[in-house]
What does this fold into?
Amino acid sequence: MALRIRKNGLILCAAKSIPKDGDCYIDDNIHYVLGVELCVLSVKGHLKNGCDVWEFHTSIGLRDKIYKEEKAKNNIMIMRNKNG
It folds into this structure.
């Protein structure tokens, strides 16, 4: 699902929201990376019209966890490459 980020910081489902000047459009691929792979974006709630409202996570603990997981994945790949 694509998203729109408004100038005021509100993050909305692009399919169920009306485009406005100044919106930043986030396509499906970027949304997937932010929401699933990096776990820094999730649904906050819904508007009356059913439009999803999203939010970024700014927790340092979450960022540290993601960093450690990515570092561990990279270390595994390095070890595999060294061992053939």
